[in-house]
Design goal:
Blueprint lengths: L6 H26 L7 H13 L7 H33 L11 H15 L4 H27 L7 H25 L4 H9 L7 H20 L1 H7 L3 H6 L4 H23 L5 H13 L3 H25 L8 H23 L1
């Protein structure tokens, strides 16, 4: 006699399948909608010709070289931010933690601002230098914060949070100083810090993809440890988790994900906060399904947010960070009200 499927497992399968389907629809909409609408059949044929190396027809360049890399990059950035949000929420055991909580956004901002000022007269050079500067700034920030929080040997989560806040203030002040000193580059800096995917290209996609895979691979293989960390560090240690080592692994994985995202898209808030929380409400806290589902959910949110940013006031394009903030701000307030209501 065949055993009945577990209700929870069925629910998880349905949600994951729904997220995959929604991502496919969102990506089709992202490629198809714009100044020149393109039908799904034309999109599929254009991609097929590109993969087969066949001669292009008029319109293929818009699909393959402009819209498709932007939509794919939006999905990758959303997946990076949402996955990092899951990891930091597990590390701090707080659903209100977001990927920028340790000051990496400030570090990335300073690195990008320096790169923008150094390449003010060479626009083409910015496409390589600015992402590199943002990535380097984010990585150096998290390394310094971890070193600062572990001066006594153990990596205390509270010290880590305080160090991140302190360093974030210092780096933000340095960014403001650079912006004032190099006023001629201020417009470019402000638009970068608002977040956006206007510079999306296939090289950016190839750069972010391995970072997403590397940043999410180790946590996916360590979902048991992530679940145990929710019980508290002492209890996790009793159950066999090397807590100090695992905290550093999670921090490193999250840093790779955040650095990859901000390097190509600037500072985009709330995706890493609200997406994991919505998925957690639907599926529960089990990281075996929470992590991949959040990555899919983040990709969907980012693709749709970028679509709105491109089309709602066309031909004017809104920085996508503004769209996510307009949606994420009220969502964050709702989280606080809901949490205080439960208390």
């Amino acid at each position: 006699m065949t055993a009945a499927p577990h209700p929870g497992r069925t629910r998880r399968t349905v949600v994951l399948a729904a997220l995959l389907a929604l991502l496919a629809v969102a990506m089709l909409a992202g490629v198809g909608l714009g100044a020149v609408p393109v039908g799904p059949a034309d999109i599929v044929r254009a991609i097929g010709r590109a993969l087969a190396g066949e001669a292009r027809v008029p319109g293929d360049a818009v699909i393959v070289d402009i819209r498709l890399p932007r939509v794919v990059l939006a999905a990758l950035v959303g997946a990076c931010l949402a996955s990092a949000g899951v990891l930091y929420q597990a590390l701090f055991r707080n659903p209100l933690a977001d990927p920028y909580i340790l000051g990496m956004s400030a570090g990335a901002g300073l690195g990008a601002v320096i790169a923008l000022t150094l390449t003010a007269s060479a626009t083409a050079l910015r496409f390589g230098v600015v992402p590199a500067g943002a990535f380097l700034g984010a990585v150096l920030t998290i390394v310094f914060v971890v070193r600062l929080a572990s001066l006594r040997g153990a990596l205390d989560v509270t010290s880590l949070l305080l160090a991140g806040v302190a360093i974030s203030y210092v780096l933000s002040a340095m960014t403001s100083f650079v912006m004032v000193f190099f006023r001629e580059s201020m417009t470019s800096v402000v638009f970068w810090m608002m977040g956006g995917l206007t510079a999306a290209s296939w090289p950016y996609v190839w750069m972010v993809t391995p970072m997403l895979l590397a940043g999410i691979a180790v946590p996916l293989l360590s979902t048991r440890e992530l679940n145990l960390m929710l019980l508290g560090e002492d209890r996790a240690a009793e159950l066999g988790v090397d807590v100090e080592r695992f905290k550093r692994v999670i921090l490193a994985a999250g840093a790779v994900l955040v650095a990859a995202a901000v390097a190509v898209s600037g500072l985009i808030g709330f995706v890493g906060l609200m997406t994991p929380h919505m998925v957690r409400l639907a599926l529960g806290p089990d990281h075996r399904v929470l992590l991949p589902a959040s990555a899919l959910g983040g990709a969907v949110v980012m693709v749709l947010a970028d679509l709105v940013a491109r089309t709602v006031l066309a031909p004017v394009e809104i920085p996508v960070g503004i769209v996510t903030a307009l949606v994420g701000g009220p969502f964050f307030v709702w989280l606080l009200v809901r949490r205080n209501g439960h208390r």
